[in-house]
């Protein structure tokens, strides 16, 4: 039985979609048990009894707009998110899923769950949409503004394990996001990381990848530092949102277009869905000594359900141990 | 009379769209004279006599795939692009327009035209599409991987002058691209640049802007270093291209969608056009001691025509002198 802790109060619309997504996951997967931490009174209207669901009444929780997660952590360790992480630390559960503020989850993860012994940094790794609908792992999407080449190499090892075991890619490739495809392009960080990835026998290195191929590339893992990958991710998001608005404006501009759009209704819905990362799951916090999934802040039931599914798959695939083994092997070789 | 030098052989499809765009510009604007540098034999089939057009036979030119522009410059200064730049240096013309390789134009610009005395770096500044169709200036889009805050501040001064005089924005705002909106977000470069821009009386500072607002923001100028802004630009390009492909795939997926798309033909065409930067013009090389416009490598007639229009407007607005005055004033104040 896989045990998952859910932060019932994280997310813009919590607790409704969190509770509903949790119940849907329990319905769908009969090999999971869930402990949900949250305000019993607020969750009450949406909760149903389930023999694999435990509710831990936790009246305190983080506000979504919270700007200073370190202070929050110091002030009150009884917040729903931190209690879920504590359960993971204490091995009461195998994974945590939260739609709460990313930085708080990163801070809480560091202080409570702690890093894997051989990982020096923790990355945020969302699965982003792709033309072939299979998704791509993009990291570090925002946890570390300053990274060294070795940190990026360790992330590449971790992400390769996830791509193989969870996303079921055979021999997954890792691309370095860069301003040009030739070796030697980019900043010193990129030049050095290129060399390290190219020389590593455990990594199937794709080479440099320009973000103009980001939606159509064959590469499975897209790698850069936490500033750059975050900017790229947000530029994708902004462009997709902007183009959706333009399309709507153009459709509304004439009667005949509106008729056309009605006939295209199913296609336009599929178009919209293909950009929707919540179809695939949340972001993985890579580097913690346990499985922690950050569901999107604006998660609906289905998005949160997918975050739980992803956590379950990570535990089933024994990702943490596989990554530990890969990193240990690497350390032995380098000595 | 405004004099413009055109590199007749630059661009993926040169010389045809270059010559045709040049003739269209001469037709449209009666206050310009154009000197076109290129292979007379190759340009011949598309050339027409025009009393404000001079053809300078220049059989040598850069290949678009050229990887080592510095070597090219050292080897042969008689290439069409470099002869056009030389004409600008010698004050025979007021501006240069080329669709040739960007890095060659940057290198040629540095060595031949030289920098404005008070500009320490040269930025690439394209005008990118926006929801309101007016475009935004994005810089530095790829000339400098390493920049200091003062360089970014100087670019902001330059871009503000262009936004005001050429794009006709009243009191244009400059946004710093960043991973969060609060002051203090980002790398050291971003934190220091934020302070400098905020304190500058000549710059109407918008604050930090996350790229998820890139298509819809009110800000007129979007600023970052040459690595980041290039990545953001390419992520926009990749997302727009990818989404276009998804839309096509969805339309083709059913008969009824195809009918719908036929009815929406005009809307879909407008949708596509709204993403097309060639509607607005080329990229400006900011910091050279003269107006140099880099038209898109895949320019068609209309895109190249727009590059010429943009060069003409830059000269009409006396941008180089206005920027020099602003930077001189700043230098005096800082002493």
From TrEMBL, chains A, B:
List the GO cellular component terms: cytoplasm
Its annotated pathway reads:
Lipid metabolism; phospholipid metabolism
**Predominant place of localization:** cytoplasm
The reaction(s) this protein catalyses: a fatty acyl-[ACP] + phosphate = an acyl phosphate + holo-[ACP]
Q: Which SUPFAM superfamilies match?
A: Isocitrate/Isopropylmalate dehydrogenase-like
Respond yes or no to whether keyword Amino-acid biosynthesis is given for this record: no
Which molecular function terms from Gene Ontology are attached? phosphate:acyl-[acyl carrier protein] acyltransferase activity
Recorded E.C. number(s)?
2.3.1.274
Biological process (GO), any one: fatty acid biosynthetic process
Which InterPro entries does the record cross-reference, listed alphabetically?
FA_synthesis, Phospholipid_synth_PlsX-like
Has keyword Nucleotide-binding? no
Q: Keyword set for this entry?
A: Acyltransferase, Cytoplasm, Lipid biosynthesis, Lipid metabolism, Phospholipid biosynthesis, Phospholipid metabolism, Transferase
As for subcellular location, the record says: Cytoplasm
Q: Function of this protein?
A: Catalyzes the reversible formation of acyl-phosphate (acyl-PO(4)) from acyl-[acyl-carrier-protein] (acyl-ACP). This enzyme utilizes acyl-ACP as fatty acyl donor, but not acyl-CoA.
Q: Which family does it belong to?
A: Belongs to the PlsX family.
Q: Which NCBIfam families match?
A: plsX
Subunit field text: Homodimer. Probably interacts with PlsY.
What is the name listed in the Swiss-Prot or TrEMBL entry for this protein?
Answer: Phosphate acyltransferase
Q: Which organism is it from?
A: Mariniplasma anaerobium
């Amino acid at each position: 039985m896989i045990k998952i802790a859910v932060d019932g109060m994280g997310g813009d619309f919590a607790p409704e979609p969190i509770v509903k997504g949790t119940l849907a996951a329990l319905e769908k997967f009969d090999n999971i048990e869930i402990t949900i931490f949250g305000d019993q009174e607020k969750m009450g209207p949406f909760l149903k009894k389930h023999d694999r669901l435990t509710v831990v009444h936790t009246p305190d929780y983080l506000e979504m707009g919270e700007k200073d997660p370190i202070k929050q952590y110091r002030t009150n360790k009884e917040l729903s998110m931190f209690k879920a992480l504590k359960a993971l630390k204490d091995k009461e559960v195998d994974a945590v899923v939260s739609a709460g503020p990313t930085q708080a989850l990163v801070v809480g993860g560091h202080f409570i769950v702690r890093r894997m012994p051989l990982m020096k940094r923790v990355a945020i790794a969302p699965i982003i949409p792709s033309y072939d609908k299979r998704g791509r792992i993009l990291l570090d999407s925002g946890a570390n503004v300053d990274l060294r080449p070795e940190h990026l190499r360790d992330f590449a090892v971790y992400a390769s394990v996830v791509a193989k075991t969870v996303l079921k890619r055979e021999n997954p490739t890792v691309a370095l996001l860069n301003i040009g495809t030739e070796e030697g392009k980019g900043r010193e960080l990129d030049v050095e990381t290129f060399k390290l990835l190219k020389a590593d026998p455990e990594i199937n290195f794709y080479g440099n990848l320009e973000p103009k191929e980001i939606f159509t590339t064959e590469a499975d893992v897209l790698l850069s530092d936490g500033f750059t990958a975050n900017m790229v991710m947000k530029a994708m998001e902004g462009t997709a949102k902007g183009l959706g608005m333009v399309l709507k404006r153009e459709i509304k501009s004439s009667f005949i277009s509106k008729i056309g759009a009605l006939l295209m209704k199913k296609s336009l819905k599929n178009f919209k869905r293909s950009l929707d990362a919540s179809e695939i799951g949340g972001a993985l916090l890579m580097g913690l000594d346990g499985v922690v999934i950050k569901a999107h802040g604006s998660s609906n039931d289905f998005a949160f359900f997918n975050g739980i599914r992803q956590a379950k798959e990570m535990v089933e695939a024994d990702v943490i141990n596989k990554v530990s083994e890969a990193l240990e092997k690497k350390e032995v070789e380098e000595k």
